[in-house]
Amino acid sequence: MKLYYAPGACSLATHIALAEAGETYSLDKVDLQKKKTDDGTDFTTVAPKGKVPVLEMGNGERLTENAVILGYVADKTGKLAPKPASPERLRLQEWLNYIATELHKGFSPLFNKALSDDAKQVFRANLGKQFSYVEGQLGGDYLTGSAFTIADGYLFTMLRWAKATGVEFGPKLAAYFDRVAARAGVRRAMQEEGLAS
């Protein structure tokens, strides 16, 4: 499998899943501003949406959208998620969709250089409320309990963005962030993206 990624972008969640699952993969770095891959390929010919992540499967087909790719990685490897259609898997899918729609999309205005800091503060406050909800739901070491799942890599990525954009979150999420950051697969993905030494 090949992952098209941009360092520190939401594709980090997929990168973490691949590394944590012990999957064999290759990487193709994308410059999202220029819409070019490392070898100069026009990225829009790979992904007409112009967004990462894109996962090229063994048969050459490509998947987009984090929640879909993460589910595929879990199902292909038999790791990082409960079995399909189980009540536990449905709860995991709830978290993936919450992260994608309430957290991930909420950061877009904070990366918009045209918005004033006053306007961005409204979005920071809203994201703070969303992270407060997540913090209140944490009942174990990881988002769904004692086992690391595909949702944890995605939440970790959003917490990295929170730190970078001044969105506050509580002590339980801070401890969670440190716990996830210490995992071998997470460290590997971060190193491969040049985000850690």
Describe it.
- The chain has 197 residues and is α+β, with helices and mostly antiparallel strands.
- 52% of the residues lie in helices and 9% in strands.
- The chain has eight helices and five strands, in the order βαββαββαααααα.
- It has a five-stranded mixed sheet.
- Helix 1 links the parallel strand 1 and strand 2.
- It starts with a strand and ends in a 5-residue tail after the last helix.
Summarize the structure.
Helices cover 52% and strands 9% of the residues.
Radius of gyration: 16 Å
Unreliable spans = none
Number of strands: 5
Instruction: Let me know the largest β-sheet.
Output: 5 strands, mixed
The average pLDDT score comes to 97
End-to-end separation in angstroms reads 25 Å
| Number of structural units classed as domains | 2
Q: What would the CATH topology of the largest domain be?
A: Glutathione S-transferase Yfyf (Class Pi), Chain A, domain 2
Helix and strand content put the structural class at: alpha+beta
Shape: globular
Strands of the widest sheet, in order across it, are: 3-2-1-4-5
Strand content: 5-15%
How many helices does DSSP assign?
A: 8
- The CATH level-2 architecture of the largest domain is identified as Up-down Bundle
Order of helices and strands: EHEEHEEHHHHHH
